[in-house]
Specification:
single chain; alpha/beta; Cytidine Deaminase, domain 2; Dihydrofolate Reductase, subunit A; nine-stranded mixed β-sheet; five-stranded mixed β-sheet; 12 helices; 29% helix; disordered C terminus; diaminohydroxyphosphoribosylaminopyrimidine deaminase activity; riboflavin biosynthesis; EC 1.1.1.193; Cytidine_deaminase-like
Length: 376
C-alpha cells in the first residue's frame, strides 16, 4: 500500500503541472509501473489534447503490457475529442488499474471502472481520494452543476481597509502576496470585477508571474449601464484573453454597441435590475464552458457576490498595517447583516504566511470535497 501511495502521489504531482490549462476538463496524471519500475508517465496538458493515460501508455510502449496504472481520475469510457481511455488500457494489456476517484461526469460515473473489471483487469479505487478531489474541486462543481466554481479574493489592512480615505490602495500587501494573487489569476478561467474598479483604477487584470509564463484570465466586468470606457486597458492592451461586459437591458444601446466595436463581448443578463443578477450571470458563464471565476473587485461587487450566495471559496490576504479612518473603505459593502447568525461562515479554514502578510482561506459550505487554496 505504501508503494501504491507513492506512485499515486507521483500521478497527482504530474496532474498539477497542468493547473489552469485543462478547463473545462479535469487535471489528470497517470503513472505506469512494472516490476517496481516506472515505465511510463504522463498528464493531460490541455483541453482537447491526449488524456493522461494515453500519454503514459505511449511513453511506456510495449512495457505497458502487464503493468499497473496509477491514475488520479477514473479512466473515461466515452467518445469525445479523444477516444475512450478504457479501450486504450485494455488494448495495451495492463493488468491492474488504481484510480484515486471515480469520475463525477455523468457520462462516466463508475462505468469506466466497470468496463475494466469486465475485461479481467484488477481495479482499485479510492486511493488518495481526498487529495484527488482537492486537485479537481473546480471540475467537480462545474461538471455536476454547470455553474463555475467561484473564489472571492480580498486584500485588507489589519483593521479591514482596502484603501485609505483618499482611495490609495497600492500596495496594501507585499510582493509575495501579490505574486500569489497573480498565480490565482493564472489558475482560474476568468477574473471578475465591478465597473467601479475599472473607472477608479483602470486595471490590466492580467497574470504577471515572475517567470513570465502567466496565462491571462478572461476578464469579466459587471457593468449594469455599460459605463466601461472604450479606452480602458482591459480593451486596449495586448492580451490573448478577451473581455466580457456583463450588463443589463437598461444600458444604453449605443454604449453597448461602442463596447462591442472596441472588441468586448457584451452579455445582457436578464433580471429585474437595477444591477446585474450575478446568479443568472454565472449560469450564462457556465454555458460558455467557463468553469471557474476569481472575483477580485471592490467592496460593492464582493458584497453583491456574498449576498447572492455564489461564492464557494474565500482567499483573504491581510497585511500588518493599520489604516484607520471612518472614510477608508472596507472590503464588503452593502447593507450588511443585522444578526451574527446570518454572517457568512467559513469552513476548513487554513492560514499561511506570505512574506509579512497572512492568507486566510476557507469555504462557504461544509462540503466534504472542499480544500485549501493552491499550494504554490
Amino acid at each position: 500500500m505504501d508503494q501504491d501511495r507513492h506512485y499515486m502521489n507521483m500521478a497527482l504531482e504530474l496532474a498539477a503541472k497542468a493547473r489552469g490549462r485543462t478547463s473545462p476538463n479535469p487535471m489528470v496524471g497517470a503513472v505506469l509501473v512494472k516490476d517496481g519500475e516506472v515505465v511510463g508517465k504522463g498528464f493531460h496538458a490541455k483541453a482537447g489534447g491526449a488524456h493522461a493515460e494515453v500519454v503514459a501508455l505511449a511513453d511506456a510502449g510495449d512495457r505497458a503490457k502487464g503493468a499497473t496504472v496509477y491514475v488520479t481520475l477514473e479512466p473515461c469510457c466515452h467518445h469525445g475529442k479523444t477516444g475512450p481511455c478504457t479501450e486504450a488500457l485494455k488494448k495495451a494489456g495492463v493488468k491492474r488499474v488504481v484510480a484515486a476517484m471515480t469520475d463525477p461526469n455523468p457520462l462516466v460515473a463508475g462505468k469506466g471502472l466497470n468496463i475494466l473489471k469486465d475485461a479481467g483487469i484488477e481495479v482499485v479505487s479510492g486511493l488518495l481520494e481526498e487529495e484527488a478531489k482537492e486537485l479537481n474541486e473546480v471540475f467537480i462543481k462545474y461538471i455536476t452543476t454547470k455553474i463555475p466554481f467561484i473564489v472571492l479574493k480580498a486584500a485588507t489592512s489589519l483593521d479591514g481597509k482596502i484603501a485609505t480615505a483618499s482611495g490609495e490602495s497600492k500596495w496594501i500587501t507585499g510582493d509575495t502576496a501579490r505574486n500569489y494573487g497573480h498565480r490565482l489569476r493564472d489558475a482560474y478561467d476568468a477574473i471578475l470585477v465591478g465597473v467601479n474598479t475599472v473607472l477608479a483604477d483602470d486595471p490590466s487584470l492580467t497574470a504577471r508571474l515572475p517567470e513570465g509564463r502567466g496565462k491571462d484570465p478572461l476578464r469579466i466586468i459587471v457593468d449594469s449601464m455599460s459605463r466601461t470606457p472604450t479606452s480602458a486597458k482591459i480593451l486596449t492592451q495586448e492580451s490573448a484573453a478577451h473581455t466580457i461586459i456583463a450588463t443589463t437591458q437598461a444600458a444604453p444601446v449605443e454604449r453597448r454597441a461602442s463596447l462591442m466595436a472596441a472588441g468586448a463581448e457584451v452579455i445582457v443578463v436578464p433580471g429585474e435590475g437595477p444591477g446585474v443578477d450575478l446568479k443568472k450571470l454565472m449560469v450564462l458563464l457556465g454555458e460558455k464552458q467557463i468553469s471557474s471565476v476569481l472575483i477580485e473587485g471592490g467592496g460593492k461587487i464582493s458584497g453583491s457576490a456574498l449576498n447572492a450566495g455564489i461564492v464557494d471559496k474565500v482567499a483573504w490576504f491581510i497585511a500588518p498595517k493599520i489604516i484607520g479612518g471612518d472614510l477608508a473603505p472596507g472590503p464588503v459593502r452593502g447593507e450588511g447583516i443585522q444578526f451574527l447568525k446570518d454572517a457568512t461562515k467559513l469552513y476548513k479554514v487554513t492560514v499561511q504566511n506570505l512574506g509579512a502578510d497572512i492568507l486566510i482561506t476557507g469555504y462557504t459550505s461544509k462540503g466534504g470535497d472542499k480544500i485549501s487554496l493552491l499550494e504554490l
